[in-house]
Amino acid sequence: MANEAKVKEEISLKELIEIGKEWFVYLLSQWKIIIIAGVFGAVLGLTYSLVIKPVYTASLSFALESEKSGGIGGVLGLASSFGFDLGGGGGGIFEGSNLIELFKSRKMVEQTLLTPVIINNKTISLAEMYIQINEWRDNKPKLSKIQFSPDTKRKYFTRVHDSILGLIYEDLLRTSLYIGQKDKKIDIISLEVTSKNELFAKYFCEGLAIQVGRFYVATKTKKAKANMAILQRQTDSIRGELNNSITGVAVANDNTFALNPALNVRRVPSAKRQVDVQANSAILTELVKQSELAKVSLRRETPLIQVIDKPILPLKKEKVGKANGIFLGGILGGILVILYLIFTKKIKELD
Asked: CA 255, CA 42: separation in Å to the nearest integer?
């Protein structure tokens, strides 16, 4: 049985070699067609390398400031134990992966597209720059009358403006925008923007980081700022009342100057004013303490994003070189024609 299996294996191997020789001889007989296809593919590869514009990549990396339990955090915790709400920890919804999604949100991207940049001594928006780069007005006549002026308020846009911004947003999200952690073990987030225009890639990358940074900081400090504003208003109000009480004491004392000691009832207004002064002084002291702690809390919340690397010109460029285009085009053309010849020969054998 073992000998029979060995014989069958040898026969199968011989058959495989014979089939391989047969195909090699057939393809060798078609060398002219294969060479022509390879030359044609090389020409196409060279044309591709000359026609296709290079792609530029702008990269920006940043780290989030971590909140530690010690230091200022301990002071704020102690203050909270006495009933002082100082607004710490606001905006936690934008930590980690949620912050990455914030970069991809339509609101952040659209706000970035409406920021002004200077191109050829003219101030235009990034949305306008994107339309010009992609020559949308040449292909879409409806865009001829639509303009995206820098810093235009969103409420003044029409449905057409919204539709165009939506198309730009989807196109950027699909082809140009990458945001994420390259290494899960490192808390550094990388932002990359690719474009056929070097300046657009750089400006949009930096603009998006600025917009998200502002929104993130505003969200994180919103509660602390609101609390500090309330404390400031209360402090100003009590200080005004204290000043009025002090003035009232002085007026009452003037009215009772050299008063007959038997007429003590006329000293009551002065005594009441003294009580007001003492009460307002105590309240003002506590409010000032809380206001200072609120300022500490606000300083603790900002800044929250530390930029590590920014895009620097010239940007990283990806382009198919002439030699690579010729080589890859020739190889691809030859492979395709070989597959075609094999397929047609098999079809003829079946017939």
From this structure: 108
Question: Three-class SS of residue 124?
Answer: strand
pTM for the full model?
Answer: 0.65
Give me the phi and psi of 282, to 5 degrees please: -65, -45
Give 25-76 pLDDT, tens digit per residue: 777 777 888 788 778 877 777 776 666 778 899 999 888 765 543 444 444 4
